[in-house]
Amino acid sequence: MNKQRELWIDAAKGFSIIFVVMGHSGDAAANHYLSWFRMPLFFMLSGLVFKPVDACRYLGWAAKRTKGLMTPYAAYGMLIATVLLLFSFNVRGFAENIARLLYGGLSLTGPYGVFWFITCLLFTQLLFGFIVRYPMRTQLLLITAAYSLSHLISLTSLSTFNLPWNIDVSLLAVTYYAVGYYGKKAIPALIRHRLTLP
After folding, report:
1. Model-level pTM?
2. Structural domain of residue 38, as residue ranges?
3. What is the pLDDT at residue 81?
């Protein structure tokens, strides 16, 4: 028997996407305040539906996750680069766009601006999928270390360096991902409780 889909998760993801669009609409104040929670919310919701993988199956699972996210990343990235080439006939610009796609991170601007999220989500999933093989205490230590390292990077000269695939952001995002995963039972129960209140 299939497990009933939690519709509120889909609704929350939808609101998170709407908040991203609103934040990028040009209103600086809206972007400032919405940025506090829109992406943490999305990572938390992603962690909520994460299914752990056995250590012996990790490499196959990681390859499947990478293919699932990087195939559309590469396909749409190449499509955009090709369209830009057809309109500009700028071969050097085309090569630069391909290089930016390969490196990712903060180099993804303009029409590629939203692409950062794909590699960030992928690395967050791969990192968390690796972490959950360990006992709970080790998991919490590794997540705390990743969280601390992300803040350390932001406070040093590394913050001005464009790390590939937004790895530094993934180190922070894995914390929100973990909140969703560890709250897999408590969060839905709290939502259902709130919905049943008069």
Report:
1. 0.84
2. 1-49
3. 93
